[in-house]
Design brief:
The complex is a heterodimer of chains A (283) and B (334). Chain A is mostly helical and 283 residues long. Chain A has helices at 3-6, 10-35, 44-70, 76-81, 92-95, 114-122, 125-146, 152-180, 184-202, 211-216, 223-240, 263-271. Chain A has a single domain (9-243, 252-277), classed as Ferritin, core subunit, four-helix bundle (Ferritin, Up-down Bundle). Chain A is 63% helix and 0% strand. The radius of gyration of chain A is 19 Å and the shape is globular. Chain B has 334 residues and is mainly α. Classes of the chains: A mainly alpha (283), B mainly alpha (334).
Chain lengths: 283, 334
């Protein structure tokens, strides 16, 4: 299926556009979140690794937004910088901050960016690492499925992105088994992060009203099917890392219909801060 | 890390055979040979190199702070990607340079702790705040340009590992310069708001930039020895002039004004920019840790180092094969 063919099928086009917003927004927001560590990571090597994955994901957002633009949506920067939270379609996992229990006491000002200051003073890198693990595994499962998409531009892009995502999954698959069983502190931090994040991770696969249309058109499999594949991938890694799933987790939904955590507003205020000074300017 | 070996004994003036060794060493360096980690070298040469590489590495990771703070605010996807890549490079340069210093016998952990405690220095420019997006543009263009002048010169220096690290650093810095220049062009040719932001940033940054290459040759204490051993090949003033000759005309072309109090003027005959000499006492005060945001920079580094401790401890434990027991509910096979 090509872009031109979609012109004759309004409901398929609407469903595809919704899918691309979900993919692009997840990529942008996790890229933004991971780049909050650039320059202040726990060790230089991980500082570099998180920056690298952040760039990949921001690049993926640009690629998905470019597909949207080809379908008649605004240009990629306007999509990223010109929308309020209610129009974002990202899941809550990518939106979450990384302050764990340290939210109460804001630190002294260290820079012009209060969110960054809180990452420095209170950020829990274990949350970022576990999130990166859950997200990248889902990303890999999704891209593997989308390689077969009937929408050719998306299938082509999925094949391209999969090569990069392979390194994201490798990163977490290498680190988690080492850190999860190394010290009591590293195990506790990662286990707490896994327990707190897992309901949000399940929310990555929030079913949408477009699932059936997308599956029928051969564009993308339904979300519950992807969730099953994802769980089969992560279970052995969790086990090998000494991490256990929290009992009775119910998924956190809402992101795919624009009902977000308050953190998304904070992310977008930071993301769009300079752009909003003059949205018509070329920066 | 290289262990101190017997090759490094007799490396101080007055030691047995020191003068002969020094003469052979200086002859080697004079021929343009590279000195390698296991080679004999005067203690002073090693100390000076550790000091320089350490300061340089510190400057890279402190330099990541003012720009890193602005990655979340970068106003387009292209700028966000480029800025994140640039700051990542700076952290990578820090890693590379700490490794180069480790070849001289000083461990990274010790260097980072000396930075945090305020014992070790870092570049004067990173003691100042990045207040607006235009500051990020000015840092990426003009400070990286000034740094390239310094690093391209140091890359020809006599110590092999530092020289090789700097070749790679310079290669990457060239991209930063292009990114910085491109951002400044957008600002300089943009709306009035953007042009005013850019000029305001230059007004605030020009003094630290003029001080970047270090005290005037009349005041610099280390230069003579460093040049004799080919650690450094140009004086501070020579580097500053090289920077000014290349970049002041580009600034003028973009309509950027240099603050009037500098009275910048070009001397055609000597091909040199003349200006009112900055207050070098102020420079010394700043690099000793009394600049506008020195305390905040070190506090940021201290907190991030402290928060990373559990990761470093866990990685060390994993590297030694230490493992804690699995929780009873897990059923891993390893």
């Amino acid at each position: 299926m090509t872009t031109a063919a979609l012109a004759h099928n309004a409901s398929t086009k609407t469903a595809l556009i919704d899918l691309l917003y979900r993919l692009g927004d997840d990529s942008l927001i996790i890229g933004h979140r991971n780049s909050e560590w650039t320059g202040i990571g726990p060790i230089l090597e991980e500082d570099i690794a998180f920056s690298s994955m952040a760039q990949d994901k921001i690049g993926h957002a640009l690629a998905f937004y470019t597909l949207l633009h080809e379908l008649g949506e605004p240009d990629p920067d306007t999509i990223a910088y010109g929308r309020g939270p209610e129009r974002f379609r990202c899941c809550s996992l990518v939106t979450l901050d990384i302050f764990g229990d340290g939210k109460s006491a804001p630190p002294a000002a260290l820079s012009n960016n209060p969110v960054r200051d809180r990452v420095v003073a209170q950020g829990d890198w274990a949350i970022s690492l576990v999130r990166q693990f859950f997200f990248s595994e889902a990303d890999a499962v999704r891209m593997a499925a989308l390689e077969q998409s009937a929408y050719e531009p998306l299938a082509h892009l999925a094949r391209k992105l999969r090569g990069e995502i392979k390194y994201h999954t490798l990163h977490a698959r290498t680190l988690l088994p080492r850190l999860g069983r190394a010290t009591a502190e590293s195990r506790d931090r990662l286990q707490s992060a896994a327990a707190a994040l897992y309901p949000h991770a399940l929310g990555m696969f929030e079913p949408t009203p477009h699932d059936a249309t997308l599956a029928d058109a051969g564009i993308a499999p339904a979300e519950p099917e992807l969730c099953d594949r994802w769980q089969r991938e992560i279970a052995p890694i969790m086990d090998g890392s000494g991490l256990v799933f929290p009992p009775r987790s119910s998924p956190v939904y809402g992101g795919r219909t624009g009902k977000h955590l308050p953190e998304l507003t904070e992310v977008l205020d930071a993301l769009q801060k300079v752009y909003r000074l003059d949205p018509t300017a070329i920066w | 890390m290289v262990q101190i070996t017997e090759k490094w004994t007799n490396d101080r003036p007055g030691d047995a055979g020191y003068e002969e060794r020094l003469a052979a060493f200086e002859a080697r360096v004079g021929r343009g040979d590279k000195v390698e980690p296991g080679d004999w070298m005067p203690r002073d040469y090693r100390d000076q190199l550790i000091r320089l590489i350490h300061v340089h590495a510190n400057s890279e990771i402190c330099g990541a702070l003012p720009e890193g703070t602005w990655i979340p605010h970068a106003p387009s996807l292209k700028r966000k990607l480029a800025l994140c890549a640039k700051v990542q490079d700076e952290v990578g340069h820090g890693q590379l340079l700490y490794r180069a210093a480790e070849t001289l016998g000083k461990p990274r952990e010790e260097m980072i702790e000396e930075l945090i405690s305020g014992k070790a220095k870092y570049s004067n420019v990173f003691h100042y705040p990045a207040e607006t997006w235009a500051d990020v543009c000015v840092i990426a263009w003009l400070i990286d340009a000034a740094a390239i002048v310094n690093q391209a010169m140091m890359a020809e220096g006599s110590y092999g590992p530092y020289s090789r690290a700097l070749k790679r650093v310079c290669y990457e810095e060239a991209f930063h310069l292009t990114h910085g220049y491109d951002m400044c062009i957008s600002m300089a040719t943009g709306s009035k708001l953007q042009r005013d932001m850019l000029q305001d940033a230059v007004n605030r940054w020009w003094k630290p930039i003029m001080m970047f290459h270090g005290p005037s040759d009349k005041e610099s204490t280390h230069t003579t020895l460093l040049m004799r051993w080919r650690i450094k090949l140009k004086t501070n003033d020579e580097q500053r002039q090289e920077f000014l000759r290349k970049y002041v005309p580009k600034m003028i072309n973009l309509g950027i004004r240099i603050p009037a109090e500098w009275e910048m003027r070009y001397d055609e005959k000597n091909r040199a920019w003349l200006y009112n000499e900055p207050d070098w006492e102020e420079f010394k005060t700043v690099v000793r840790g009394n600049g506008p945001v020195s305390a905040k920079r070190l506090e940021t580094r201290r907190l991030s180092h402290e928060h990373g401790r559990w990761v470093r401890e866990a990685l060390a434990a994993a590297a030694e094969g230490r493992k804690i027991p699995l929780p009873p509910t897990a059923y891993a096979t390893n």
